[in-house]
Amino acid sequence: KLGQMLTGKRGSPMTGAMTGSKLPTQVMSHAQHPPGNSSIPTTPQGDVSANKRIEDMLKNSVQASRKVNPRGVSAPDTVVTSIPEGLERGSNGCEKISGQDLKPFSGPYETGMTQNGIKVFTSRKQPSSESFLLENFHAVDSFANVMEDLCHVYSLNVASVAIYHDPSGNTIAFNSNRSLHFNVRYFCSLHHKENAAPDSSCYSYWFTTMAHELAHNLVSAHNKDHAYYTESYVTLFLPKLAV
Question: What pTM value is reported for the model?
């Protein structure tokens, strides 16, 4: 079980634009509920009720995830110059949302999917992407098993998850129209070992990445609300990961 691997060990909606996990990862500040009237005293029962409403919202948001588009993804880079309140600005005062240009990858099974049924995509602009997938599909299948396990943790339909390969850029994963796409390049670089099952550090890394992308079902920007929802997903589903 996953909990046995974690014992004693440690371990990121598209509406016309893409949102995703990138390196370096964002560090969250202090924990708090979404902004409200903090001057009004509350009761323990009120805290419990508020927490229950948030948990229900998070679970409903997972169920609102959509099936992966089998045709792939085609979206250009987007530069956001009108920065919403709470969004961290870059050095030039704007945030660049990396685009993606992905096409289906038939793969060794000629199904466009991994052995367990997760869709696979390759970069249209990078010919080396298809060669990499052909040579390393055993690693893709291993990554797909990790994704399937995490879908069970989050009660997420596996049809809402895709694996892709992009040999350039720093995008680890992205959320496209409430479907989640994960870059196998980072799994191969950081976690894949020949003749060895993925370990706890692998599961904790991609568990947190999936939380980051699920939070984009609720908010597009990388702002304080997104950080709060990411943290809330981790808090809610971490006990299930450790079972």
Answer: 0.81
